[in-house]
Design goal:
heterodimer; A: alpha/beta; elongated; B: alpha/beta; Rossmann fold; 6-stranded mixed sheet; 4-stranded antiparallel sheet; 9 helices
Chain lengths: 373, 266
């Protein structure tokens, strides 16, 4: 740094009809700078002449200032004499002027109709992609059954640990709290009729038939779905997926199937565990608030639920696991090759998974009703 | 483009201004692994300075320590005589304005257009209004030969264009020093040479000090005023000087081998 850095100066003197602008001081873009509007005031000179006096360091800020004066002079049809300025300043100001005129067309704007059209085409494409991907996964799964030795069991087990065992704490907490909330809610009505004991039925049935599987699905969609999409998206951005393809290894076999198998196996286990904890949550509320002894609660639960309810929960959770794995892996593989693209893929994976989960749940509700299950 | 350039400064006399970059006894380590130790050198203002060496010799590590991304285990880095290491955040922030960095993959923010990329440092550190900022952005992009590409996203550009855009961003605040991390990595020879010319052109018009981490021999011989060579085993500098002289007459066979691509023996 210079010992005495003086502030950038642009002083004006009127010489006849001309305005002489004397530039001096230290022109740093990060420091305070004179503004042409204030320097000129409301004078309308016939010509503007530059002079240089005690100019220390200068950078783009001086070039910009000169450019601004030149532009003003052109607008006001005034002569601008820059001959006294350093040659580089004049050259750079000229470069800036040329660049101002140059525009390489980059049209990112779209009109309403085009947006609607593109969105419609996009949703059709997405549906087709999803169907394609499900088909690919099915073929890959058939390949796995034919030659189980070629399957990446190590990856699959690691993923099982990640999406199964590591998810136990959060699944425990959420399902316990859901069971607890259900018991409280049920008690509000049942107490009025003196039927406190039926809290066990409400908690048991709704946990097994709905909440256990759905809560596990939502937790896994948020936790594992986002992780799958981010992992695969990042691999795509790093060209790791391309490297697999050029080796003749299908990304679906290598990356998607281990995850699909892991999540499909782990979701029902977690859902069963969630069911137990949901019922336990109800039991805790009954024992403490409603004064129903745990053994009475348990007997009531057993009398009401049967194997059909358990199988409903199992079937649902297997399908939920598959849907989450397929949707989030697809989103990961579709990710754009950039940081923002990976972020969008993760978000979209969670949204798609939860949406598919709810749709599937509704379909199951109708289906089980028809089947009388 | 030959070795004689007016800006190549010879040994400064007493009372000379402090060097643009002064490094003393720098030790860089990752955990317990010492990568570099006892590294000292000075870069004079306006110099085109190369840090060279084989893969894994600690070139990039040294750069990361110089620009403050890593804290040195020992030693100091000074910019124009002002201490950069072990200073408080405010003092360091002030010094950050004195240098710009062109990262190996340009590191442009992918969700922002080139205009926004180059304008961000200006928004942070200047009081310019929007129109004035835009004019500076236009000037900087024009200086690197990307006039008119303001509204493009990085993903819409080729590798060479991205590098140049990264350079425009590094130059946004007119820093007195620019660091380059492997500028020719991933570029074809012609694009790489054009980038070299751009480096020379910018040094010529703005007098910027350039520190370039590279192992691209063509660039080293074409540009460098002075080089230091790092070595993995020595964990420090094994040679310092003009590249041509080092290649011809350095005592250390490792240096000669590197600068002649190991073809000397054949």
């Amino acid at each position: 740094m210079t010992a005495v850095a003086t502030q950038a100066r642009a002083e004006t003197i009127a010489e006849g009809d001309d305005l002489v602008v004397t530039l001096g001081g230290d022109w740093r873009i990060t420091g305070p700078l004179p503004a042409w509007r204030r320097v000129r005031g409301d004078r309308a000179p016939r010509a503007v002449r530059f002079r240089v006096e005690g100019l220390e360091r200068w950078d783009s800020s001086l070039v910009r200032f000169v450019f601004e004066v030149q532009s003003w002079c052109r607008g006001a049809k005034t002569l601008c004499d820059t001959t006294a300025l350093p040659e580089i300043v004049r050259r750079l100001a000229g470069q800036l002027e040329q660049a101002q005129a140059k525009r390489v067309p980059a049209d990112h704007s779209r009109n309403f109709l085009a947006t609607v059209g593109l969105a419609a085409a996009d949703s059709w494409r997405q549906t087709r992609d999803f169907a394609d991907f499900v088909g690919e996964c099915t073929l890959s799964a058939i390949g796995l059954i034919k030659r189980p030795g070629r399957f990446r069991w190590r990856d699959c087990i690691l993923e099982m640990q990640q999406c199964g065992a590591m998810a136990v704490p959060i699944v425990s907490l959420s399902s316990f709290l859901v069971g607890l909330t259900l018991a409280y809610t049920g008690a509000i009505i049942l107490r009025q009729f003196g039927g406190d004991i039926w809290v066990a039925d409400i908690v048991g049935l709704s946990t097994l038939r709905e909440m256990g599987a759905v809560m596990t699905g939502v937790v896994l969609a948020g936790r594992t779905g986002a992780a799958f999409a981010a992992q695969l998206g990042n691999m795509k951005a790093n060209e790791e997926i391309d490297a697999l393809e050029t080796l003749g290894i299908a990304p679906v076999d290598f990356l998607v199937l281990p995850r699909l198998v892991a999540l499909t196996l782990m979701t029902p286990l977690l859902a069963m565990y969630a069911n137990c904890l949901g019922i336990f949550g109800g039991m805790v509320v009954s024992a403490t608030v409603l004064e129903i002894p745990p053994n009475a609660y348990w007997i009531e639960t057993q009398s009401n639920i049967d194997l059909a309810d358990v199988s409903v929960s199992l079937i649902k959770s297997v399908i939920f696991g598959m849907l989450i794995a397929v949707a989030s892996c697809l989103r990961g593989l579709q990710a754009e090759r950039s940081a923002a693209g990976v972020g969008r893929a993760a978000t979209s994976a969670v949204v798609t998974s939860i949406l598919l989960l709810i749709v599937a749940d509704a379909v199951f509700a109708v289906l089980f009703n028809v089947l009388g299950l | 483009m030959n070795g004689n350039r007016a800006t190549a400064v010879e040994h400064p006399g007493p009372g000379a201004p402090p060097p643009a970059i002064g490094v003393e006894g720098l030790e860089c380590r990752y955990g317990d692994t010492v990568v570099l130790s006892g590294v000292s050198f000075a870069v004079r203002e306006g110099e085109l300075f190369f840090v060279i060496g084989g893969s894994g010799c600690g070139k990039s590590t040294l750069l990361r320590h110089l620009i403050g991304l890593k804290k040195p285990a020992r030693g100091t880095v000074r910019y124009f005589g002002e201490n950069f290491t072990n200073e408080d955040l405010a003092a360091r922030r002030n010094l950050l304005k004195t240098f710009g960095v062109l990262y190996q993959n340009a590191a442009l923010w992918s969700s922002m257009t080139l205009r926004e990329n180059v304008a961000l440092p200006l928004e942070q550190y200047t009081i310019l209004n929007r129109r004035e900022r835009d004019e500076i952005v236009t000037l900087k992009l024009a200086q690197v030969g990307l006039a008119g590409y303001e509204e493009f996203f990085p993903s819409e550009l080729s590798g060479g264009m991205r590098k140049r855009a990264g350079l425009a961003r590094a130059l946004a605040l007119d820093p007195r020093i620019v660091f380059f991390d492997e500028p020719s990595a991933g570029l074809d020879p012609v694009t790489s040479r054009k980038l070299d010319e751009l480096v020379l052109q910018i040094r010529e018009s703005l007098g910027t000090t350039m520190v370039i981490v590279s192992h691209e021999l063509a660039s080293i011989f074409a540009l460098a005023d002075r080089v230091i060579m790092l070595d993995h085993e020595a964990r420090g500098i094994i040679a310092e000087g003009r590249p041509r002289e080092l290649a011809d007459s350095n005592d250390d066979p490792r240096v000669r081998e590197f600068l002649t691509r190991g073809e000397e023996k054949a």
